[in-house]
């Protein structure tokens, strides 16, 4: 297998990875990176097949020990983080993953998500009300970040006065999912897990004494019915829902707005659809925005047993990097893939994964983004990015922006259309 180093943290690559990924798809669709010590895959069909292949998994320590893998002892700076990882569904494989996901889905139902549509609309309108008269805002800090945090807090049952604590905790924790992080970031993430876990433990205790119609109360009922959901697993999976459940929406919103801004003809279609209240248009449009500029552009899997993948030997204990952002622009799967086309009908993008680890929060993220774009363009039809180039955060695995100043002129007075469809 040919070796090649892909500098995922190069600011130029983070800013625009697509030309590099296009070249790799054609010249080097599979390669071993000796720096990251991973085998990378760039083509859609390979990524999709590996995501569905049960011979690969999100974790490896249930198959091989740290000594067998040649790993050093666990990092003493991340003890709480490591325990959190071992208790949530994302980084576990069957049978533990099967049990945790089944129990979470008993509480995180389609009906519960659909029932949040009105709440999401109210939150979106409230965020716009705060800035409508100013004629400008930071789309990231004033809108994209608070929206999913408020929605998931509502879903979990976190009191409003405690919600400002959630995003800082989550932001620190997800730093450890990047390739390469500092000791200071490890300490901050670990402390965030300690504080966040203590908070959710306390909230769960409150719900045991006085249940409400929220997800934590529903999970407490699952736990009390002796369906093998431990208190630590309850806490870890609630934290996971916030961490994983808001990153796609936050980054998807700002990346999507930038894509619209850079494609005026598509922005025009979206504005017209928002003006006529065309919800179906935004269902299709959001799928295309998530494909075109992927907010979580890479996930990893461990090879759990030796296998031959289309003539490529993958040995047990090897880690593979699946470049979703590349697969989502693969011309073998998507006609004219570098063109933003909001009316694209067949759109099986990889953004929420495939297989047993498909994101259970995908329906919620979709509703949030559909409501966000439709309402922004209806209430603030002249919205546009005020300053370019827009600065990206460090790291590629969770790719987003540091800020996104937008202008839209003075909006309607707060409250005129809040909570109502046109």
Strand-helix topology:
Layout (H helix, E strand, L loop, with lengths): L10 H5 L2 H10 L2 E4 L4 E4 L2 H9 L3 E2 L8 H4 L9 H9 L8 H12 L2 H5 L2 H15 L4 E3 H6 L1 H11 L9 H8 L9 H27 L5 H10 L6 H32 L1 H12 L3 H14 L6 E5 L3 E3 L2 E3 L4 E4 L1 H4 L34 H18 L4 E2 L19 E3 L15
Parallel strand pairs: 2-8
Antiparallel strand pairs: 1-2, 3-5, 4-10, 5-8, 6-7, 9-10
Shape: globular
The CATH class designation is Mainly Alpha
Strand order of the largest sheet: 1-2-8-5-3
Distance between the termini: 57 Å
Q: Give the fraction of residues assigned to helices.
A: 40-55%
The major pleated sheet works out as: 5 strands, mixed
**Oligomerization status of the protein chains:** single chain
Number of DSSP helices? 18
How many structural domains? Answer: 1
Please describe what this structure looks like.
This protein has 422 residues and is α+β, with helices and mostly antiparallel strands. It has helices spanning 11-15, 18-27, 44-52, 66-69, 79-87, 96-107, 110-114, 117-131, 139-144, 146-156, 166-173, 183-209, 215-224, 231-262, 264-275, 279-292, 324-327, 362-379, and strands spanning 30-33, 38-41, 56-57, 136-138, 299-303, 307-309, 312-314, 319-322, 384-385, 405-407. The chain has a five-stranded mixed sheet, covered by helices on one side. The protein has a three-stranded antiparallel sheet with strand order 4-10-9. The chain is globular, with a radius of gyration of 21 Å. The relative contact order is 0.18.
